[in-house]
Specification:
This protein has about 240 residues and is mainly α. It contains 17 helices and no strands.
């Protein structure tokens, strides 16, 4: 295993030097070999492989897609979730951000393996190191800004803190106006209801995106899902007098 770790370390040092060298490694089957190495190793031995996948992916979207095609996301997710040491988790989060932030296709590959939820979980975990929290947050933002696969974003509406939630709702505000099926699905899945329950300060980006989404629906539907709607109905019932 030590020989394999040394080899992976050498490849890492080459891969980070330039796009041409990273491309040469991939052309020789190096990306698939590194993915296999990350899959088969544990602990600190995994680190050079994890970093190599990030360095390769950072240069170019086609190189990142090559890592995806080599099934490189799953072992990075495994490291993010299962490795006990935060510095290894942080490296996995960084590499995931390098892969997923290039385009909607890259972000969708992340979403299909539930990477945004995993990144959010380690970011919110109270015992995560500051470095892990920062790297997972940065990776999550990078992926969210490219993600157009809305079903993967909906669970984050209930879980994400405001500074991340604004990126989630921005994607809905961009995509829903041009997709009627997504608009209907957003109501049926209670996404519209959930955003009415968000306490967003006036003038904030979060409030802006909520209002943009609300403007896509008839006012009576938005009111129906408002937290105060039942109170309003009960007040009307109390004030109602058939004899008047």
């Amino acid at each position: 295993m030590q020989v394999r770790k040394n080899a992976a370390t050498c490849i890492r040092e080459i891969a980070k030097q330039s796009e041409n060298l990273a491309r040469l490694i991939c052309s020789a089957g190096g990306a698939a070999a590194i993915v296999d190495y990350v899959n088969s190793s544990k602990g600190n031995a995994r680190l050079p492989g994890i970093m190599t996948l990030g360095y390769i992916s950072a240069f170019d979207e086609s190189l990142a897609m090559g890592v995806i095609a080599a099934k490189g996301i799953a072992p990075l997710k495994d490291a993010l979730i299962k490795e006990p040491e935060d510095y290894i988790k942080a490296a996995a989060a960084w590499s995931l951000g390098q892969i997923g932030g290039h385009s909607a296709d890259h972000a969708r590959a992340m979403a299909e393996l539930d990477i945004p939820t995993a990144l959010l979980a380690v970011n919110k975990f109270s015992e995560s190191s500051e470095d892990l929290k920062n790297k997972s947050k940065k990776a999550l933002k990078s992926i969210l800004q490219m993600c157009s696969h809305l079903p993967a974003l909906e669970p984050l509406i209930s879980e994400a803190p405001p500074d991340i939630l604004q990126y989630v709702l921005h994607q809905f505000a961009k995509i829903l106006p041009n997709n009627n099926n997504a608009k209907k699905s957003f109501v049926q899945s209670e996404g519209l209801k959930k955003i009415q329950e968000i306490n967003a300060p006036p003038g904030s980006k979060l409030r802006q995106y909520i209002e943009e989404i609300n403007s896509l629906y008839p006012q009576e539907i938005v009111q129906y899902y408002s937290p105060d709607y039942q109170k309003t109905l009960m007040k009307k019932l109390d004030d109602f007098n058939p004899a008047d």
